[in-house]
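Please annotate this fold before class:
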Amino acid sequence: MMLPFLRNTADDAEHQMADLREKLAEELQLSDDEVKELLPSGKQSRFGNRVAWAKVYLAQAGLLDTPRRGAFKISERGKQVLFEPPAAIDIKFLEQYPEFREFRYQRRRHEEPPEPSGGDGKQEIETPEEALEQAALRLNDELSRQLIRQVKSNTPDFFEKLVVDLLVKMGYGGSIKDAGKAIGRSGDEGIDGIIKEDKLGLDVIYIQAKRWDSIIGRPEVQKFVGALHGQRAKKGVFITTSGFSEQAIKYVDRIDPKVVLIDGPQLVAHMIDNNIGVSTANVIEVKKLDSDYFLEE
């Protein structure tokens, strides 16, 4: 990424990040999907993040100058590098410059994750944001495994209550008292719970909750759909701690009433997102430079 970045500034003109991102995407022959692929947080594209950090590293090594806010151009040192260009510009190459070594030293003192390498721009590299988000994903993966084990260890009655709690927290019907209730033991006419779709109760959603280890097949889903027809219901949610067969998934795609299937991984992901059965252990604020503050009249 860094060598193509520097090459695209070889005209000695001032450049903006938006223009350079477009040129790099074209040079590296990236597809629209590759350009638009987001980091796990969904707040920034992976490609844009890597381009931004390539600019940071090149500037820290003195290969780029920043003549004014939001603009950059190749420096004399950068021109020298392109006069006899290396096969790639990576961290090892940039460490020949004392400014970059100081930058690296400051970052190592804070025990930050590995920086990206150079390469052709398509290889997997890891920026600090990517490393942080990947760490969060690994923590969430472990939390998901703990959650599903805990849910399976509780009683079926508790699981049905958990499902109603979750749907209420997701915005269906308002309060637990007003919106959702368990309506009998597991398997009562194929329906385990009912919840209002909105605070006014204009429609209801019927719930089937299976705390199972085995895969839910089409016959079980058909029983639930039959129960919905018996209630003249239009909407249902089938939630399980396990998973659904391919036949079950295809079946609900072509029937009326509307039935949503939620498997174990989806269940715990919704629980984490809505703080059901989990609590916040730590919060890390990631801050960036406020360039506007340093503008002088």
Observations:
- The first helix runs from residue 2 to 7.
- The chain has 13 helices and seven strands.
